[in-house]
Automatic annotation (TrEMBL):
Residue spans crossing the bilayer: 50-71, 83-107, 127-147, 159-179, 185-206, 236-258, 278-298, 310-331, 343-360, 381-401, 407-429
Recorded topology in the membrane: Multi-pass membrane protein
Location in or out of the cell: Cell membrane
Organismal lineage: Bacteria, Bacillati, Bacillota, Bacilli, Bacillales
InterPro entries recorded: MATE_fam (IPR002528), MdtK-like (IPR048279), YsiQ (IPR047135)
Protein name: MATE family efflux transporter
Organism of derivation: Cohnella yongneupensis
Keywords assigned by UniProt, alphabetized: Cell membrane, Membrane, Transmembrane, Transmembrane helix, Transport
Record-linked PANTHER family: MULTIDRUG AND TOXIN EFFLUX PROTEIN MATE FAMILY, NA+ DRIVEN MULTIDRUG EFFLUX PUMP
Length: 460
């Protein structure tokens, strides 16, 4: 494999653009739906939080398989990498079918259980039923793109995301506003557009996946399982999946608390999610790129390079997310007024943007170190740290400060800030420990030697 293909910059920029484009789908939805009503925006925001929680179920296998694919390719074990990929797709697809059926019959029940405000409950039921029925497509999208990225090909998923965005906006214009003679379906049109675009993306990604491991993967290979490899996937994947599920469910629980505060607060948080995504995307893309690179280097026994890759990603990310948030603050008025003309929502969002100057660097610290630890198979420790922190600090303080003390959304942000920095600092000590006495210790700090036992110059 071309070494430059696994450089941090080569991996990161297509992921960054792809994620910007995917978040742009959500932004397009928010902008277009905001022309319907603030209630419709609240429906989309709440439903997307729910679907993000469901998505974590599909990552149980895909996340573990992705790391192992990069490690195996680094070690030159191409055949195992192929099997890991096909197993991940089949198992994730089966989970997607089960989840799609469950949501189709139970969308309204889920919405009620999550405290969706009564006035938007019918719309939430309709939207969640349509989009939830296509969760199989969401599952396959996530698994296919994860496997392809971990082969080092981060550009192709980016191109697919670009095509999805253009077509999604086109379909939104047709289905929401009745362009080109289509009926004006409103919120239902957004849901239909989402499902159609995801279906087309799966078709393209599946073709890409079958050519991602050298020779074309035959359909018969999707029925080949290696229990030993599957055991490794589950061992690495379950802590990451549980960690991700807990975080997403905690965010959904926080959204539920905000739903109790009122529709205005829910709409404001939805607008903020959309704006924050542009800072979050920069940091997350660097963290994902670092994970792929570190897993590849770890498999290739390049332990020293793997260790310092984490810090390169974290440093670049800190700078970029802070700059990104600063730009949003500079242009806060025109940005917010483009979303809504509600003065309460605008004033609240401006204050929350200032809090983001503190929040986003903490997120970057946590993401870079967390993904690095996962890349070398230490996801269980990350899970053990994250679960109590996100529930005690992020959710607990959101309830105590936001509801009990009536701080509203400001209390929610204080809880999130303390959670991100607490986890990030603990993971920093863990990563340093891997250099001294952990998985990287045997390769860090000791000079390399040649075949005759002589110390090689310039290795330290």
């Amino acid at each position: 494999m071309n070494k430059n293909k696994m450089s941090l910059g080569t991996l990161a920029w297509p992921i960054m653009i792809e994620m910007f484009l995917q978040f742009a789908i959500g932004t397009a939805d928010t902008l277009m739906v905001s022309r319907i009503s603030n209630d419709a925006v609240a429906v989309v925001g709440f439903a997307n939080q729910f679907f993000n929680a469901v998505l974590i179920v599909f990552m149980l296998v895909a996340s573990g398989a992705g790391i192992l694919i990069a490690q195996r390719l680094g070690a030159g074990q191409q055949r195992d990498a192929r099997v890991l990929g096909t197993m991940a797709i089949v198992i994730t697809g089966a989970l997607g079918i089960i989840v799609s059926i469950t949501i189709f019959f139970g969308a309204g029940t889920f919405a009620e259980a999550l405290n969706v405000p009564h006035e938007i409950l019918p719309d939430a039921d309709t939207y969640m039923t349509i989009v939830g029925s296509g969760m199989l497509l969401t599952a396959l999208n996530a698994a296919l793109s994860t496997c392809v990225r971990n082969t080092g090909d981060t550009r192709s998923p980016m191109y697919i995301a670009f095509g999805m965005n253009i077509f999604h906006v086109f379909l939104n214009a047709c289905f929401i506003f009745g362009a080109l003679g289509f009926p004006k379906w409103g919120l239902q049109g957004v849901a239909l557009s989402t499902v159609i675009v995801r279906f087309l993306a799966v078709l393209v990604l599946l073709r890409l996946f079958r050519h991602a491991f050298g020779s074309k993967i035959a359909w018969s290979e999707f029925f080949k399982f290696k229990p030993k490899l599957l055991k490794e996937v589950i061992r690495i994947g379950w802590p990451m999946s549980l960690n991700g599920a807990s975080w997403t469910i905690s965010q959904l629980a926080i959204f539920s608390l905000i739903g109790i505060m009122g529709t205005h607060e829910l709409a404001a948080r939805t607008y903020m999610n959309t704006m924050e995504s542009f800072a979050f995307t920069v940091g997350w893309s660097l963290a994902v790129a670092a994970q792929i690179q570190i897993a590849y280097m770890y498999g290739k026994d390049m332990r020293r390079e793997a260790y310092y890759s984490c810090y390169r990603a974290m440093g670049a990310g800190m700078l970029l997310v802070t700059l990104n948030t600063g730009l949003m603050l500079v242009f806060r008025q025109p940005i917010l007024q483009y979303f809504t003309d509600d003065p309460w929502i605008i004033d609240t969002a401006i204050t929350l943007l200032w809090l983001n100057l503190i929040l986003q660097p903490g997120k970057m610290l946590n993401m870079a170190l967390g993904q690095s630890v996962n890349a070398i198979g230490d996801g269980r420790f990350s899970m053990m740290v994250s679960l109590p922190s996100m529930w005690i600090l992020a959710f607990g303080l959101s309830y105590a400060l936001g509801l009990s003390l009536d701080w509203g959304l400001y209390g929610v942000y204080v809880g999130m800030i303390l959670d991100e920095y607490t986890r990030g600092i603990i993971m920093w000590f863990r990563w340093r420990n891997h250099r001294k006495a952990g998985k990287l210790a045997d390769r860090i700090g000791a000079p390399a030697v040649d075949a005759k036992g002589a110390v090689q110059a310039g290795t330290m």
